[in-house]
């Protein structure tokens, strides 16, 4: 009976995963189809005439600049989030801070607010400081929403690390900062990488901040530049899907490389 239950659960899981991944599969195969095959009835589930013209069209259309902009914005936003959230989360986990309950509540509330709530205040601030039409505006905007999430997540992880590790390091002559850099960070590296990946994914998929704070299309990321893949007199679906495939490729690669850290224990093997 247990074996039958395992088979049912496995089949159910495969079906659910297939349903979630089918749109991604359809996007990719559409990018390799001709425009005529895209509208063919009945639809084909694999390209009959495998072609790369749509990718060449998109690449020659300036996707490289959009890709570079996305890398700059997402990469710098991730660095800002980690530089601010990692020491902040460690301090909130190790030291007694007055009003920490209210602070955590405020951080939690910020995660419930849509991006449009902070859009106008940030626009006013960036306009007064001369940061509009620069990379700095979307970087700071996405980091503003990423820092509270990372602090909430990392604080819980740091609280789970035994204090005995730091006490043992202090006996060996390590100060608080050295113990944090040489003992705590290596142990919590999987969690830090997960927060970095989530922050990168959030910044990579940002659209509203980039098009609001940057009127210059030369500074737009892939999410905003994808509109240029739409034809003037109609949507060229194979070109559009080629653009979308290029856009999600870095996310898929990063997720595959970091998937083991998503399930790896935070302090596994740290205390024997």
The chain-level structural class is mainly alpha
Oligomer: single chain
Q: Write out the CATH superfamily name.
A: MetI-like
Order of SSEs, N→C? HHHHHHHHHHH
Beta-strand content bin: under 5%
Largest sheet: none
Radius of gyration of CA atoms, rounded to a whole number = 23 Å
Number of E-state strands: 0
The CATH architecture can be given as: Orthogonal Bundle
Span between N and C termini?
38 Å
CATH class: Mainly Alpha
| Number of contiguous helices | 11
CATH-assigned fold name: MetI-like fold
GO biological process, one term: transmembrane transport
Transmembrane segments: 7-28, 66-90, 102-123, 135-158, 179-204, 240-258
Keywords: Cell membrane, Membrane, Transmembrane, Transmembrane helix, Transport
InterPro entries: BP-dep_ABC_trans_perm, MetI-like, MetI-like_sf
In short:
It contains eleven helices and no strands. It is mainly alpha-helical.
Report what the structure shows.
The protein has 272 residues and is mainly α. It has a single domain, classed as MetI-like fold. 74% of the residues lie in helices and 0% in strands. It is built from 11 helices and no strands. The chain has helices at residues 2-31, 35-38, 53-94, 100-112, 115-129, 136-159, 164-171, 176-204, 208-213, 222-225, 237-263. Helix 3 (53-94) runs antiparallel to helix 8 (176-204) and helix 3 runs parallel beside helix 11 (237-263). It is globular. The model is unreliable at 265-272 (pLDDT under 50).
């Amino acid at each position: 009976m247990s074996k039958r239950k395992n088979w049912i659960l496995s089949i159910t899981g495969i079906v659910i995963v297939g349903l979630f991944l089918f749109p991604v599969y359809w996007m990719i195969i559409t990018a390799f189809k001709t425009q005529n095959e895209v509208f063919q009835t009945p639809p084909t589930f694999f390209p009959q005439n495998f072609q790369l013209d749509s990718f060449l069209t998109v690449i020659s259309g300036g996707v490289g600049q959009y890709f570079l902009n996305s890398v700059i914005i997402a990469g710098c936003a991730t660095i800002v989030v980690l530089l601010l959230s990692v020491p902040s989360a460690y301090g909130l986990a190790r030291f007694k801070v007055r009003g920490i309950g209210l602070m955590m509540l405020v951080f939690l509330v910020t995660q419930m607010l849509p991006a449009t709530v902070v859009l106008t205040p940030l626009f006013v601030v960036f306009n007064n400081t001369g940061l509009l039409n620069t990379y700095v505006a979307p970087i700071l905007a996405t980091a503003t929403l990423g820092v509270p999430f990372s602090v909430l997540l990392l604080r819980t992880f740091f609280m789970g690390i035994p204090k005995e590790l730091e006490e043992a390091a202090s006996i060996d002559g390590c100060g608080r900062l050295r113990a944090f850099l040489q003992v705590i960070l290596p142990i919590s590296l999987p969690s830090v990488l997960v927060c970095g990946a989530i922050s990168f994914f959030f910044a990579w998929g940002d659209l509203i901040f980039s098009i609001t704070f940057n009127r210059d299309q030369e500074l737009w990321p892939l999410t905003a530049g994808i509109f240029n893949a739409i034809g003037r007199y109609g949507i060229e679906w194979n070109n559009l899907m080629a653009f979308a495939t290029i856009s999600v490729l870095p996310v898929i690669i990063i997720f595959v490389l970091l998937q083991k850290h998503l399930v790896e224990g935070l302090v596994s093997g740290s205390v024997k």
